[in-house]
Design a protein that fits this description.
Layout lengths: L1 H4 L14 E2 L14 E6 L4 H12 L5 E4 L18 E5 L3 E5 L1 H13 L5 H5 L4 E5 L5 E5 L9 H7 L3 H16 L5 H5 L3 H14 L4 H25 L6 H16 L13 H10 L6 H9 L3 H12 L6
Parallel strand pairs: 2-3
Antiparallel strand pairs: 1-5, 2-4, 4-5, 6-7
């Protein structure tokens, strides 16, 4: 039930995960240089959406396994029980978790073939930390860095400021933007019910599970969203925080660039787009389009990703 409740939006640490070698999950050997990818996800999870946006933009074929957020039988092979999980085989099978680690590791692999994917993933070690409430969680060192040599770095980031800007806004998407989703899509009882109708429609539920998730989940998340609003110190009208954040992003992109990455999206563009698109079809998304300046950039992102999307 909790998995269903947080499928759309999410709270701090929702998709934190430890990277581990796959010993229990077999995968066929592949020709050198190729990637076999399987993404385990909830479609409405913003962290999963970030990964899909990245894979689609880079034209990487991948299989999707939609996880039932209540039973989660689809990921029973994994000791880690959250999503996204990406199974990647580039000669040897690996399990990668944490959306930002997944994106940084695969991007590094695409740019530089000096190291195996397994070696690249080792550059993002999990570190146990303890929250203010005494809860032990995993964080990842270097997760916004691409592990490139000097020549590769200069090719991807001609000036230092480009890299700094991309990392700053990727972190912003994880640390701030994503926390505005739940309070906005569950803002009122009506919106909460509409959000769970969307979750059930797009997710993997049995008939009874779907009815339970839709009505009980909507009520639960309406009240949870109020706690999230307080936790993140949002305004009484949480739409104002969403509008302000979105316009802050548009201002950072500026009037003279199509994307933050210039003529093509960079990892920050893909992260922000991935987070925002989980609201499509909901009242919060429509309000955002009307009351902010995001629409031209968002439409450009849709167009460029649709040209290369090859998910199977």
């Amino acid at each position: 039930m909790l998995g269903a409740a947080f499928a759309l939006g999410g709270s701090a640490g929702l998709c934190l995960a430890a990277r581990q070698r796959l010993r229990e999950h077999s995968a066929a050997e592949l020709p050198a240089g190729s990637l076999q990818l399987t993404l385990y996800q909830y479609k409405t999870c913003p962290f999963c959406s970030k990964v899909r946006a990245f894979l689609d933009y880079h034209g990487l074929p991948y299989e999707i396994v939609e996880v039932n957020p209540i039973m989660r039988k689809e990921i029973k092979f994994s000791s880690y029980r959250k999503v996204p999980i990406l199974l990647a085989n580039a000669g040897s099978p690996l399990q990668l978790n944490d959306s930002s680690v997944i994106i940084s590791a695969i991007k590094t692999y695409l740019i530089s073939r000096r190291n195996s994917l397994e070696e690249i993933v080792s550059f993002y070690p999990p570190v146990k930390t303890v929250t203010e409430k005494g809860k032990e969680v995993l964080e990842y060192e270097n997760k916004y860095w691409l592990m490139l040599d000097e020549k590769e770095t200069k090719r991807v980031y001609p000036v230092k400021e480009v890299r700094v800007e991309e990392m700053k806004w990727r972190k912003w998407a994880d640390d701030w933007l994503v926390h505005l989703i739940s309070p906005n899509v569950y803002r009122t009882p009506k919106e909460a019910l509409a959000s769970f109708d969307y979750i059930v429609r797009e997710g993997k539920f049995g008939t009874l599970e779907g009815l339970f998730a839709k009505y009980v989940g909507a009520v639960a998340m309406f009240f949870v969203s109020k706690r999230l609003k307080k936790r993140h110190q949002l305004r009484d009208d949480v739409r104002e925080d969403l509008y302000e954040a979105v316009n802050e992003w548009v201002k950072a992109v500026g009037k003279n660039r199509l994307f933050m990455g210039g003529n093509q999206p960079n990892l920050a563009d893909l992260a922000v787009y991935g987070v925002l698109r989980v609201m499509e079809g909901l009242e919060a998304f429509d309000d955002m389009m009307v009351h902010t300046n995001i629409q031209p950039w968002y439409q450009r992102m849709e167009e460029v990703i649709q040209k290369t999307g090859v998910a199977i």
